[in-house]
Amino acid sequence: MLRNILLVYQHNKFFQKAFEVALDLAKKYQARLHFFVLMNRDYLSYQSSVESAPQFQELREFQKIAFQSGIDSVIFTSCGDLAVSVSHYVQNEHCDLVVIGKRHFQQGRNTIYFDAVDYLIKYLDCSLIVVKDAITHQQSSSEVTLQC
Predict the structure, then answer these.
(1) Nearest to 37 by CA among 4, 91, 79
(2) Residue 105 above 70 pLDDT?
(3) Which of these, 31, 62, 101, 116, is most buried using a 10 Å CB contact count?
């Protein structure tokens, strides 16, 4: 049984698909949805609060959609290393599943992303779903069978 699903925020077109998968699973299992966003330390030093960051505002909109679907959710921000921060959050909040969207190809930054995903695959105590851009509405995430 899934009780806590962690959705890793990405500012790209794949996040919408990852959100849809995570929301479908949260509705199916009545799980709590945890939004996780990695913030830039330098950017935050110029801001008076995390809530004013564009990423946080965008996640608020996704949180509203989850709420309208009857799903409890929380937004968590971190400034650390992606893999380590996600791993610690999963452990501390007893997440049963991590959902992350496929990364679009961008020179230089992909190595960090792929290293993070590789780390999560190796060291997480829970399942990880990487949502690719090929998933369609006809291929519902509810069709995915999870053994919890």
Answers:
(1) 79
(2) no
(3) 101
Instruction: Please provide residue 73's backbone torsions phi and psi, each rounded to the nearest 5 degrees.
Output: -145, 165
CA distances to 17, 37, 107, 136 from 89, rounded to whole Å, are 22, 11, 28, 29
For the chain, give every domain's residue range.
Answer: 4-143
Residue in the block written with tokens 């053994």: 147
Is the confidence at residue 110, as pLDDT, over 80?
no
Predicted confidence band at 77 (pLDDT cuts at 50, 70, 90)? confident
**Residues 61-75: pLDDT tens digits?**
999 999 999 999 999
Distances (CA, A) of 98 to 14, 88, 122: 15, 12, 13
The two structure tokens encoding residue 104 = 């679009």
Cα–Cα distances in angstroms (integers) from residue 57 to residues 35, 52, 64, 127, in the given order = 12, 7, 11, 28
- Tokens coding 143: 């069709």
**What is the CATH code of the structural domain delimited by 4-143?**
3.40.50.620
Express the helix, strand and coil content of the chain in percent, nearest 5 each.
Answer: 45, 20, 35
C-alpha 146/C-alpha 112 separation (Å) is: 28
